[in-house]
């Protein structure tokens, strides 16, 4: 009798192995070989699920998007609308090891968008999610004023820029500085001066 394989369970097992490697050693160490070893699989078995490195990164980005959405939409936030917006947007920034590793996946996938349609599609989805977060933030902070597309674009660019600079220069942009820069921008936005 042939063995029944639960492919969703196997992919979930691979996801856990991949993220253990990413969190421990960084996204650059997440190769087919290292993930296969972490999962106790052969590299050829892993290639059945991910034929290319980009497929692996797309899979990782799906995980990043799901986790970021889960954190962003958490119901436990309290305080003023301004405080809630800050807390929500901080979930998208590399302020701890987990979010920094997730941002590394974003950056590696972004580097592949010029040559790989799958990477480009997934990055478009990720960018759309950040834009929606920026739109929500601007709407919350500006109240009954119409949502200003330029303000949304500036906030989106700030989030992307803070992420990129935090990854490239963590010594110059530690978490407290990222929070401070975001706070200053949100204060200006709420005051109507951006």
From TrEMBL:
Pfam families: TetR_C_6, TetR_N. Keywords: DNA-binding, Repressor, Transcription, Transcription regulation. GO terms for molecular function: DNA-binding transcription factor activity; transcription cis-regulatory region binding. InterPro entries: BetI_C (IPR039538), Homeodomain-like_sf (IPR009057), HTH-type_TetR-like_transc_reg (IPR050109), HTH_TetR (IPR001647), Tet_transcr_reg_TetR-rel_C_sf (IPR036271). Residues 31-50 bind DNA. The keyword Transcription applies. It comes from the Bacteria. Residues 8-68 form the HTH tetR-type domain. This is TetR family transcriptional regulator C-terminal domain-containing protein.
């Amino acid at each position: 009798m042939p063995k029944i394989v639960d492919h969703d369970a196997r992919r979930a097992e691979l996801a856990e192995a991949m993220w253990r490697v990413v969190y421990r050693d960084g996204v650059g160490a997440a190769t087919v070989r290292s993930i296969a070893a972490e999962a106790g699989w052969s590299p050829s078995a892993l290639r059945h699920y991910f034929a290319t490195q980009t497929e692996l990164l797309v899979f990782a980005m799906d995980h990043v998007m799901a986790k970021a959405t889960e954190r962003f939409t958490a119901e436990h936030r309290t305080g003023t609308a301004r405080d809630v917006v800050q807390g929500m947007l901080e979930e998208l920034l590399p302020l701890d090891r987990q979010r920094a590793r997730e941002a590394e996946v974003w950056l590696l996938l972004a580097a592949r968008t010029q040559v790989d349609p799958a990477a480009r599609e997934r990055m478009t989805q990720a960018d759309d999610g950040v834009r929606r977060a920026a739109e929500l933030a601007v709407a919350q902070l500006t109240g009954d004023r119409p949502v200003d597309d330029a303000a949304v674009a500036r906030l989106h660019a700030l989030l992307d820029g803070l992420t990129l600079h935090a990854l490239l220069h963590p010594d110059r942009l530690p978490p407290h500085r990222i929070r401070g820069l975001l706070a200053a921008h949100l204060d200006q936005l709420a005051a109507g001066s951006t």
